[in-house]
Amino acid sequence: MKGNVLIKVIFSVALMVMGMMAGATPVGQRDTMARKTDGREVVLLKKGDMMPNYVFKDVNGKRVSLKSFRGKYVYIDIWATWCGSCVEQTPYFEELEDKLHNKKIVFVSISVDKHREAWVRKVKAEKSRVPQWICPEGEDTPLLADFGVVAIPRFILLDKKGRIVDGDFGMPAWARTEMDLRGLEGI
Asked: Of 26, 55, 59, whose CA–CA distance to 139 is shortest?
């Protein structure tokens, strides 16, 4: 009996360590997501669903949305300035954007930072070439809850009509990701 408990504990610890080694940074717990969205019912989005019309802000404070990119695929990077794994993916994200710049795909980075000022400083210092937006609600954004995001970075791919192709698309550092993007119909 004690041996079974010990095996379960060791297995649980091993799973936690493997999760940490996967390179994701936790942003919250699943059981708190509904509370973080002001009590609204959270229904996880899936492949084929229309992307909700979330409103973000750009570095100048202007309200922006993904609707402006209809007619093109949209590859979204959900990140934060405090997330080391997210920052590590940035050069790969921008490199992919360079390679696919004249194609029918747009790359957008969406931050879930709570402190807008820190995000603005980081974005201006990095001089990113891709649109940089922030969720006004920070980590409490419905975007995270709707996709069941509990760790970042997270990459999402939308089709030309704004439907979800993949709510957990490959990281830009992976060679397979570029191949998958190049293989999109009509890109």
From this structure: 26
